Structure formats: C-alpha cells, structure tokens
C-alpha cells in the first residue's frame, strides 16, 4: 500500500507560500496576509495533477532574527543574522518528511540572506528533489529576474505568480516528474490480512496509555504533559491468531495552537499514519466531553475513508448516574452524525476497564471493510428500496436505476448505472446507503456510492 507523495512548501516569510498552497489545493484553506508570519501552523491538503494525487504541506515562514545591537529590526533584514534553532529544525523536518521540496522566493526582492541560509540547509539533503519557485513574477519583464536564483545552487527555477496562476502548471509538471526520483522506502505492500489500527485524538486523552495496555508493556512514553508523543510508533502484536499493527500518534491540537517546528510535522506524521491504517480509534476524554477539535479529527478520518471506533477514555473519573452513559451516547451521535454509525466504547486506560473490547470492536469493524455483496443480492436490495421509497423526479423525468454492482472493497464501493446522474439527489443517495447498512455489517465503515449513466442512455433520452 503506497502512501501518497508529499510536497513541502518552504521559504522565508511573506514570499507567497500560503497563496501557492491555496492555488494547488483549490481551496482557501490558508490565511493570506501581507504581514510576515501570518501562517503560524502547518497546513496539509490533497491536490492532484496529471492524475497523480499528492499532499501539499504549507510549513509557515522560516523566521530569522537580528542579534542584539542590530539597528534593523525588520523580519526580512539583511546582514548578520542567525536562525532560531526550533525553526531550523522545522526546515530540516520538512526535508525529511517530504518527497519533493518547493522553495519559494520573491522575484521582486531578489536573493536575500535568509534565502541563502535556507538554501544551505536544503543543499545538505541532496537525496530529495528540490525546485525553486520564483514567486510574484506577474509579468514577463519581472519574470526575467528569476534567473538570478540559479545562484542558490538548488536546480531549476520556475518563475510563477501564485496569485494569478502564471507558471504554476509548469511547476506542477516538474513536481510530478520529480516524484519518480523521490525515494520510495516508505511504500508498504498490500497486506489485507493485517489489521492496521491508528490511535488518534487530541493531546493528553490517553493514546499512549491505551497503546501500552494493548501491547502489554510500556512501549510509549506516558506523560501528563500534552504533546509528549512526537512520532508515530508502529508495533505489531498477535491477537487471537490475527496480526495487528498498532500506531500511536502525536496529538492533533487545534489549528493556531500548534507550535512551530517539530510539533507541526508531528501532525503531518499523524495524518500519514492515519493514511496507512484501516481502522482509526478516535479517543475522547470523558471529563472534557466532545470538543470541536474532536469533531475536526473525525473529519480527517472520513477524508481518509477509514473505518472508525470511538473510544471514550477516563470513564472511571466521571461522576455517573443511571443515565450518564446514555446521555453521552446521544451527544456522540449528535456531534458525529457525519461518521458511519461508529461503535462507541467507554474505557479507562488507567484501570483497564473494558479495554479488552477495543481490539474486538476494531476487528469487527475492519471485517466490514471487506464485506462483499453479490450483484444479484445487491439488486434485490435496490429494488426493495425503490418500492419502499420511489426514486426522485425532476420536472417530468424520474431517476431510473438499471442495476448496481460492487466494484471494490476496503472500503466498499458500489456502482449504480442510472439514466441521468443529475437526478441523483444526495438525500436519495443517503437513503440507499442506509438501506445497505440495515442489511449488512458496515458498522463504523464508510461505503461509497458512485452513479454512472448507462452508455448511450442519457443521449437517447435527451433526443426524445
């Protein structure tokens, strides 16, 4: 199972990294502002070019500072400068984690001392392809100045305007070509017989404690200080004859509270750990209740199309009455209504209460990812669903479902051949999904419904 390649955007503040990030991912996910240092946290999102899907990481500006006694306090000042060690670590981690590095520079300002320092860091890591994007080349005359950045010694320079989209296509062509040069040592073979579980959640909800209980040993550092776990840790155990790979991950803090440097790339590692898993254990803190960040992490799980089990930890510390658990369950169903009916377990990683149910439930959910429905049985279910709730109409036309078939597992994907995909309303799609879930064990597992017009059918009906 090969992971998606990663492109890291690096550079000093205010060279346009967030603008280029927004351009590449097609959304305004990063805050852009002329004030240097606006991007305080790492952002990651998916992009694609020429059919190649990859992740883009906006690392934030690599800050520099002036020594004491310097008259020029500008964050972009020239002269005698030094790097804050933590920010230098961030640049090194960007190189370590990414497959391709894109260094952004400002073609209007030309080469600065900060650019030279960053280039020196990148040159020490020649095993990764590095591209230079000379940004703010809004017209051909300015673009001619991009040639001076060859002096950085990093390779090919691409004059671009991230704001206007000028030259970005050429840059992306080079990025995709560079993926072929990038080392593939983190690619993993398909191992459908291994249950891969990622333990995710906010900092300090008990992820490492749960991992240690499941492993039966003190493998991960446990600390009450939020953010102790910096790296994703893989461990394999055998459970009832089944190989289980457990991944403990760094806590994902609320955007804006993520510290520069190492912690930013801990989040990247977490997202990549989630990507290579099958089932995510989403840990909640029973004492804190359900926070906005918990639901954000649930969204990350859905974006990655992973199965999910919600694990409510520290249940022993909650004052309870007869209705406490039911009230919490209702709250879970309400706040996580976008998740595919995940099972919920109430545990205590401190006392071991109900921890034995975690692997049992994860295994049950994992099996649902490989559930197959025969074409005959699937179409019987579809006909029954249509009888129960007739297909929607638009004007004088009604949606017709000719037949359906399952085309993939892990996660399950169903293809519906219809007369016109424009007649498929999302509410009817949800209805069909619920009918499938009512008959088959897709608990906690996303299923994907795709609709395709039968070849020639839409054209024929439109002529009529």
Description:
There is one protein chain. The protein has 464 residues and is α/β, with parallel strands linked by helices. It has three domains: 6-179, P-loop containing nucleotide triphosphate hydrolases (Rossmann fold); 195-368, P-loop containing nucleotide triphosphate hydrolases (Rossmann fold), CATH 3.40.50.300; 375-463, GMP Synthetase, Chain A, domain 3. 31% of the residues lie in helices and 22% in strands. The strands form five sheets. It has a six-stranded mixed sheet, with helices on both faces. Strands 10-11-9-12-13-14 form a six-stranded mixed sheet, sandwiched between helices. A three-stranded mixed sheet has the order 17-18-19. A hairpin with a 2-residue loop joins strand 15 and strand 16. Helix 2 packs parallel to helix 7 and helix 11 (375-388) packs across helix 12. The chain is globular and about 70 Å long.
Write the layout of secondary structure elements.
Elements: E1 6-10, H1 17-25, E2 43-49, E3 52-58, E4 64-65, E5 82-83, H2 85-97, E6 100-106, H3 113-123, E7 130-135, H4 140-143, E8 157-159, H5 168-179, E9 195-201, H6 207-215, E10 233-239, E11 242-248, H7 262-275, E12 279-285, H8 292-303, E13 307-313, H9 324-335, E14 344-346, H10 356-368, H11 375-388, E15 393-394, E16 397-398, E17 401-408, E18 413-418, H12 426-439, E19 448-453, H13 457-463
Parallel strand pairs: 1-3, 1-6, 6-7, 7-8, 9-11, 9-12, 12-13, 13-14, 18-19
Antiparallel strand pairs: 2-3, 4-5, 10-11, 15-16, 17-18
């Amino acid at each position: 199972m090969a992971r998606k390649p990663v492109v890291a955007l690096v550079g000093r503040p205010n060279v346009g990294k967030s603008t280029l990030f927004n351009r590449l991912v097609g959304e305004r996910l990063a805050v852009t502002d002329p004030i240097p240092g606006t991007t305080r946290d790492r952002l990651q999102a998916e992009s694609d070019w020429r059919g190649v899907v990859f992740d883009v990481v906006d690392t934030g500006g690599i800050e520099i500072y002036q020594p004491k006694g310097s008259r020029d306090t500008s964050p972009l000042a020239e002269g005698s400068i030094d790097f804050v060690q933590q920010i230098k670590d961030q640049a090194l981690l960007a190189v370590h984690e990414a497959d391709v590095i894109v260094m952004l520079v400002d073609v209007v300002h030309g080469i600065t001392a900060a650019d030279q320092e960053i280039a020196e860091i990148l040159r020490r890591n020649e095993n990764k392809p590095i591209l230079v994007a000379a940004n703010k080349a809004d017209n051909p005359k300015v673009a001619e100045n991009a040639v001076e950045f060859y002096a950085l010694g990093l390779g090919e320079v691409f004059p671009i305007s991230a704001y206007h989209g000028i030259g970005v296509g050429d840059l992306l062509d080079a990025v995709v070509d560079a993926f072929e040069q990038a080392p593939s040592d983190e690619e993993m073979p398909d191992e459908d017989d291994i249950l891969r579980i990622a333990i995710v959640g906010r900092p300090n909800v008990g992820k490492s404690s749960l991992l240690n209980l499941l492993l039966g040993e003190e493998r991960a550092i446990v600390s009450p200080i939020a953010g102790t776990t910096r790296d994703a840790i893989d461990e394999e155990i055998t459970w009832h004859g089944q190989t289980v790979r457990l991944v403990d991950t760094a806590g994902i803090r609320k955007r804006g509270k993520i510290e520069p440097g190492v912690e930013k790339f801990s989040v990247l590692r977490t997202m990549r750990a989630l990507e290579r898993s099958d089932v995510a254990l989403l840990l909640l803190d029973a004492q804190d209740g359900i926070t906005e960040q918990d639901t954000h992490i649930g969204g990350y799980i859905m974006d990655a199309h992973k199965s999910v089990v919600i694990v409510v930890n520290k249940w022993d510390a909650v004052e309870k009455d007869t209705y406490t658990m039911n009230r919490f369950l209702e709250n879970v169903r309400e706040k996580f209504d976008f998740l595919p009916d995940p099972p919920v377990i109430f545990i205590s990683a401190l006392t071991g209460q109900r921890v034995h149910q975690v692997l049992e439930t994860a295994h049950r959910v994992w099996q649902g990812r490989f559930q197959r429905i025969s074409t005959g049985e699937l179409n019987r279910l579809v006909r029954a669903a249509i009888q129960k709730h007739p297909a929607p109409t638009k004007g004088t036309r009604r949606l017709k479902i000719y037949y359906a078939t399952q085309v993939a597992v892990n996660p399950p994907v169903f293809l519906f051949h219809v007369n016109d995909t424009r007649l498929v309303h999302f509410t009817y799609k949800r209805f069909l999904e619920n009918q499938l879930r009512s008959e088959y064990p897709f608990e906690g597992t996303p299923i994907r419904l795709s609709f395709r017009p039968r070849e020639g059918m839409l054209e024929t009906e439109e002529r009529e």
